[in-house]
Amino acid sequence: MSTTGLRAGRRRVPPRASAMIEALRGLGYTSGTALADIIDNSISAGAGVVDVTFGWAGQDSWVSVLDDGVGMDDAELESAMRLGDKNPIHDRETTDLGRFGLGLKTASFSQCRRLTVSSWKNAEESVLRWDLDLLAAGDDGGWDLLESAAPGSETRVNVERSTETGTLVVWEILDRLVPKSSTEQDFLELIDRVERHLAMVFHRYLDGSGQDLLISINGKRIAPWDPFLASHPATWTSPPVSIETAYGVIRLQGHVLPHKDKLRAKELEQAAGPDGWTAQQGFYVYRNQRLLLAGSWLGLGKGRSWTKEESFRLARIRLDIPNSADADWKIDIRKSTARPPVAIRERIARLAEDIRDRARKVFAHRGKPLRRTSGDEVGQAWLAEHFLGGIRYRVQREHPAVKAVLEDAGDLSAQVVAMLRVLEETIPVQRIWLDTAEATETPRTGFADQPSEEVSGVLAVMYRNLVLRKGMSPSAAKRQLALTEPFNLHLDLVERLPDLVPEYGDSPSC
Prior knowledge:
It contains 16 helices and 16 strands. It has helices at 17-24, 31-44, 74-81, 103-109, 132-137, 154-157, 184-201, 203-206, 265-271, 342-364, 400-408, 413-425, 429-439, 452-469, 474-482, 491-495; strands spanning 49-55, 62-67, 114-121, 124-131, 146-147, 166-172, 214-217, 220-221, 236-237, 241-245, 248-256, 282-287, 290-296, 315-321, 382-387, 390-395.
């Protein structure tokens, strides 16, 4: 049968509500990322105070988020409760933290089966509710948005309000947050995890550097967590870098955090972040001062993507993008992934390489300087020798301690050289690497934790050799020792060396 001349028909095939929403529950939100999405809406509504409440009641536990934002009338609330009401390709206000028009719903559905939202403005209050169990029980697969609170939930929705405008979001039937085997202790630990996450995501709001915001959990104010330890005197910070793009300005600034030796125990614990030192390294991507992605190398790297390694644990880079850049940066619904556009990857990677290199040096040298302020190079005892097959390590023959022994060895010089070669070929590189990775700590070097008397004893031998045997002046000998490993880390002891004035036939000591 010919179809020539027949008009093409069309069919409306809306998704079944229960099936669609159950599928959306699997987007991969955590409790922290879901609540952060709810608070995004509060910030976009101009809220200055957000109160998060966790109510423990076993399987009837609940969570609510109350803000003092501009609120919504009935039509606005219905729009907010509709899935996909706003087109993500449309322009948004520069301060808008949303994009897909799904955050309130998908974040909530990922954690609970009943979502109730109450909002009030202009002396008008509206309450709407999604109930996934009722949708699943329906025969027509319709999108039935319910009015008013569920029976028995009125006291959770009709809370005392001290502001003329605002919004309250209530989660109930917490099948994802409170599985059947959960205990009250599990619930308390969940609250702690959420607090750490929110302290990180909104730290630039909570510390007053952006829009003023106060977030509390069960009445306790959340303190901001600064990933960059910007106020610590031992933190190194790069000059800010701006990159002009077609969708706005991208801003970057690198930070190398202090070695643990320069941090007090409490500072060390706090700086580790919610997921620990190694996991928190990398880029911190912000949009409108809201943290989207915490600790990622964004797929950058030469040949293969950089991985998170202990040696780079001190490297953290702040990266700000405008909300007009979401598509180019591939920001997802959960605001948890980002990828830099090809056009600027190389510039971003160059900055990251520099920060990683600096962080590696601080980590390896325990935060000690490798150069003096004059810029003179420090003579190192070990050298890394790169060759086609990889890297090998060699004792620096020109190091004063090594050079002195070789020059005075006489007939034993061949044996000394052989000893050095054996040491070079048997360095336990793999053991050192494993110990460092497993203990998250570098081996102690540079006379670390050794009494100054021991350091002074070794230093005195070197000093006498340079002055009494090599004929150097005391000032020149001290200058060389100050530029020689490991004495460059003990300049106070070098400066206290006495001036030697040898007498004829004597062998003065220090």
